[in-house]
Write a structure and sequence with these properties.
The chain has five helices and two strands; from the N terminus they run H-H-H-E-H-E-H. The protein is mostly helical. It has a single domain, classed as 2-Layer Sandwich (Nucleotidyltransferase, domain 5), CATH 3.30.420. The longest helix is centred in the middle third of the chain and has 25 residues. The N and C termini lie far apart (about 40 Å).
């Protein structure tokens, strides 16, 4: 995010991703554009995976989920008809999923 925001400003910018995530709330048009592009590109990146695996939903976690409101609309426009959900566990999501899988609490169902 910092690199994309820097590029849009054509100058060095040292804020963290968290700092940049706060900029849309302040009305920063460049930050809004960077997040809009993130949603569009993320939707494009996910498209072949959604087409292949046909999930009921794609769940977003980690730090990027903390900036969800900044790219949600453009991601949903590019989502290929799949539901996009936000986790409540943020950074712990991957570990919780791995633990559930390891404990046999998750299983796969064959889809037709």
């Amino acid at each position: 995010m910092r690199r994309a925001y820097q590029s849009s400003r054509h100058e060095e910018y040292s804020a963290s991703a968290a700092g940049i995530a706060a900029l849309p709330d302040a009305g920063d048009a460049r930050a809004l554009a960077v997040y809009a592009a993130l949603g569009t590109h993320l939707g494009g990146i996910l498209a072949p995976w959604v087409a292949q695996f046909r999930p009921d939903a794609v769940v977003f976690g980690g730090n990027v989920a903390r900036a969800w409101k900044n790219f949600q609309s453009t991601l949903e426009a590019a989502r290929q008809g799949v539901s996009c959900q936000l986790t409540t566990h943020f950074e712990a999501s991957a570990l919780l999923g791995a633990a559930a899988l390891g404990n046999g609490k998750l299983h796969s169902e064959e889809r037709t």
